[in-house]
Amino acid sequence: MADRPLTIAIDGPAAAGKGTLAKRVSQHYGLAYLDTGLLYRAVGRLAAESGVDLDDPEATGAIAARLDTADLTETGLRGREAGERASRVAVHPPVREALIAFQRSFASQPGGAVLDGRDIGTVICPDAEVKIFVTASPEVRARRRTDELNAKGRSVAYETILAEVRDRDARDAGRSAAPLRPAQDALLLDTSEMDIETAFRAACDLIDRATS
Ligand code: DC
């Protein structure tokens, strides 16, 4: 294990299981954890609540600049509508720029950190000791998300979720500002055929090898 604080960047598309994986990895290595999607979700939600057009770069950027950590604890941020709004405001450079300082300062805390998102390895922490790009086929991601929602009693059709997953992939990877893509030095982890336990062990293997 490295002596200096360890920064682990975990990126990947929507519903790839990054959050669950990143949280477990952070607990395993005793590192702080930031789900950066929450920042964009909070901006989207505040914009919608205050009647700001989600497609307005300057107005949503101003909201991002005023974002407070208390805004991240709001309930309802993890839902589908919040994810859709987040993906829309995340295309705007002023929004992304306003959120950089907070993410970098979190990443550089003395004890080290795990951050998950879309551009952690490419833009936020290009010098992270370990970069993992987690993915799974759109069909597998949609199936997992559908099962998760159904288990919570929210009946939703697989086809609806698959269409949402594909839309989000297209927007997150197709935008010109910090598009979703693996950093050149990212380690790829395709979890299509893995359950969460297997994916967690595979991620730890990658991290241990990269830091030994
Ligand atoms: O990871 P998530 O599903 O909570 O992210 C919601 C949206 O926020 C995602 O579709 C795109 C945006 N996002 C981003 O652009 N950059 C990040 N680092 C994290 C999220």
From TrEMBL:
Cellular component GO terms, alphabetical: cytoplasm
Annotated residues for binding of ATP: 12-20
Catalytically driven reaction(s): dCMP + ATP = dCDP + ADP; CMP + ATP = CDP + ADP
Pfam family, one: Cytidylate_kin
GO molecular function: ATP binding; CMP kinase activity; dCMP kinase activity
Biological process annotations from GO: pyrimidine nucleotide metabolic process
Keywords assigned by UniProt, alphabetized: ATP-binding, Cytoplasm, Kinase, Nucleotide-binding, Transferase
Classification via InterPro entries: Cytidylate_kin, Cytidylate_kinase_dom, P-loop_NTPase
Enzyme class: transferase
Compartments, as annotated in UniProt: Cytoplasm
EC number: 2.7.4.25
Alphabetical list of SUPFAM superfamilies matching this protein: P-loop containing nucleoside triphosphate hydrolases (SSF52540)
Every Cytidylate kinase domain range: 8-200
Chief location category: cytoplasm
Similarity comment: Belongs to the cytidylate kinase family. Type 1 subfamily.
Protein name (Swiss-Prot/TrEMBL): Cytidylate kinase
Lineage: Bacteria, Pseudomonadati, Pseudomonadota, Alphaproteobacteria, Hyphomicrobiales
